[in-house]
Design goal:
The structure is a single chain. The chain is elongated. It starts with 6 loop residues before the first strand and ends with a helix. 58% of the residues lie in helices and 5% in strands. With 97 residues, it is mainly alpha-helical. The longest helix has 19 residues. Helix 1 runs parallel beside helix 4 and helix 4 crosses helix 5. The chain has one domain: lambda repressor-like DNA-binding domains (434 Repressor (Amino-terminal Domain)). Strands 1-2 form a two-stranded antiparallel ribbon.
């Protein structure tokens, strides 16, 4: 069994609407929460955050709603934004590429 298929939270047998949660789904949920918390702590809407930090708003929405797993490099970028949002904005403003 691959790690992504490994069940980390089994469904409640007494709840017909419950379902198993895999390791991959749990990781995706944690990443989605981290992204949403980062954005909301800055007091920005999705369009504002996306514009400020140069990312497609649709991509941000997909990540926050856990429809798509953000890649590791995006998580690293978002962690830098969480700690140093003004520095990131300043660097992006000076970028010529």
């Amino acid at each position: 069994m691959q790690n992504k298929d490994r069940i980390v939270i089994p469904a409640d047998p007494g709840d017909s609407e419950d379902f198993d949660v895999t390791a991959e789904a749990l990781e995706q949920a944690y990443r989605a929460r981290m992204i949403r918390v980062t954005r909301t702590k800055l007091g920005l809407s999705q369009p504002e955050f996306a514009a400020r930090f140069k990312m497609p708003v649709g991509t941000l929405r997909d990540w926050e709603q856990a429809r798509v797993m953000p890649p590791d490099f995006a998580i690293a970028y978002l962690r830098v934004i969480a700690r140093h949002p003004d520095m990131v904005e300043e660097v992006l403003a000076r970028a010529t590429v």
